[in-house]
């Protein structure tokens, strides 16, 4: 495999679980099993469906806006703003909320890619596995 270039405006997957405008740019659907890069826009008042990455850590860099990351596993909510990096450990149920009067633009995602979640939402076939 060679170096490739992807663009946020040409994603191969959009995932409404994350937001109305969640663009999967680098993910297993393009052959990247260990890296993941999503571009996500949340409108003011919008929030993720609470979810868990059972095998992955989630890292989210906030480019624009302010919001709150909700950690349902530990019953805490932490505010963030542009320039912050949100890190979610493996197995923590969480959701990002644009609940502070602005929208949010972020990049990042779970690493390694969350294959179980992608299979559950039928973005990958049930028998998809990383190459050995």
From TrEMBL:
Ranges for domain Cupin type-2: 39-105
Domain of life: Bacteria
Name of the featured protein: Cupin domain protein
Organism: Methylobrevis pamukkalensis
């Amino acid at each position: 495999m060679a170096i490739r270039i992807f663009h946020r405006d040409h994603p191969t997957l959009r995932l409404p679980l994350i937001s109305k405008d969640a663009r999967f740019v680098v993910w297993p659907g393009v052959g990247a099993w260990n890296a993941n890069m999503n571009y996500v826009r949340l409108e003011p008042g919008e929030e993720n469906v609470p979810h868990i990455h059972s095998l992955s850590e989630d890292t989210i860099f906030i480019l624009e806006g302010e919001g709150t990351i909700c950690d349902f596993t530990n019953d805490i909510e932490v505010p963030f703003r542009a320039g912050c990096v949100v890190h979610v450990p493996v197995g923590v149920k969480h959701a990002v909320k644009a609940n502070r009067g602005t929208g949010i633009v972020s990049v990042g995602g779970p690493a390694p890619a969350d294959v179980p979640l992608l299979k559950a939402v039928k973005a990958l076939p049930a028998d998809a596995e990383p190459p050995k």
